Amino acid sequence: MYPFIRMIKEFVVHRNAGDLPPLGVHVSHHRCWPHDLDGFLEMNNGRILTILDLGRFVLARRSGLLTALRANKWGLTMAGVSVRYRKRIRLFTKFRVVSRAVGWDDKFFYLDQSIWVGDACAAQALYRSAITDHDGIVKPRRLFDYTGYEGPRPVLPEWVQNWIDADATRPWPPVLLDDPERA
Fold this sequence. Notes:
This protein is 30% helix and 30% strand. By secondary structure, it is α+β, with helices and mostly antiparallel strands. Strands 1, 2, 3, 4, 5 and 6 form a 6-stranded antiparallel β-sheet that branches. β3 and β4 form a beta hairpin. The protein starts with a helix and ends in a 15-residue tail after the last helix.
């Protein structure tokens, strides 16, 4: 089940946090609870993605994105993710989530999120996100026209651009090789 109580807690805790520019950084603090664990008694990899979700929600509120989505009846979707898991998060461990947009192109926004236990990075994810309406993808320029942002589009970090380029070579739909279920 989605952690709605945790989400409400995040909005309450950060209710007075200041507004952020499009490339601002949001930091939130969490703890690994028993219901976050998998069979190896560490935070489940899927739960890590859900915790990152919570960071993106508050980042979206603080940057004005949620207001723009509501006002224009837009949606928000994730269009891709690449995750690195590097350190186990054990029961009752405190950790922080750092969430930020690193840039955008003509269709998508790119978000970098990481989970830190002390000074060690436990996990890091790069997301591709899109704003949608009944016609499909809403170009980032429309969002910025609505919000009044006139700053430059940042050059995407090389590692982000490399991921975009590599992902463009991935076949879609996936090629099914010798799939016994398909026969």
